[in-house]
């Protein structure tokens, strides 16, 4: 689909993982377990992880995945280039069957997300961001992949803001807390008309990349694999993911894989 072999590999892995997830989604037996941090794990998380690791293996690069998070920092600190993967981002959304879950695959180089794909299996939509090649949205992505079509919508979408249009802030379905509400109130000083939108998973980051939202503040815990792929799409669309309280871009493969609070602009 693209000229870059690594981009095509990531797309193939995301689409195949999406198929595995939907098989379980439609079957109805999720096999839910609770992890040590009290977050849910399903058969779909495991199946998607296995598919992605298998398809990415020929690249020869290591994979850091939510379902394989136990790699010691002493080992991964030597990685200059690797895959950062969340096989099923939005497991709570998956379990509640609202469709707002994604497959996230990013290529990290020297701590920065240089390429990423975010696949929305229920919608068959694929967000792609690849460095100097820009950001794209592919609708009916699995069909395009099988037919070799290249109908890409360039991101961000082109639209003209009218004076009365509200400033659109996207937030989490599960983590709309006091810090977020306080941040929104600060925004009202410059943007009196604010529209709040709630989405699950990395769809929030992709909404800013596409221009469907102006800002995504996250004042709650996230891990690096939650944001890496969406961050790559945002960067390719000419936007930023910065640490709250500073203008520093988020970095990846830290000793502690927990992200700081951040804002997507």
Textual characterization of the structure:
By secondary structure, the chain is an alpha+beta fold. It folds into 2 domains: 151 residues, Fructose-1,6-Bisphosphatase, Chain A, domain 1; 98 residues, D-Maltodextrin-Binding Protein, domain 2. Helices cover 32% and strands 26% of the residues. It contains 8 helices and 14 strands. Strands 3-4-5-6-7-8-9 form a 7-stranded mixed β-sheet, with helices on both faces. A 3-stranded antiparallel β-sheet has the order 12-14-13. α1 packs antiparallel against α2 and α7 runs parallel beside α8.
| Overall tally of structural domains | 2
**What's the pLDDT, averaged over the residues?**
92
Overall body shape:
globular
Helix content estimate: 25-40%
Low-confidence stretches: none
- Structure annotation, total helices: 8
Overall radius of gyration: 18 Å
Biggest sheet record: 7 strands, mixed
CATH superfamily of the largest domain: Fructose-1,6-Bisphosphatase, subunit A, domain 1
Q: What is the tally of beta strands?
A: 14
Question: Largest beta sheet: what is the strand line-up?
Answer: 3-4-5-6-7-8-9
* N-to-C CA distance: 29 Å
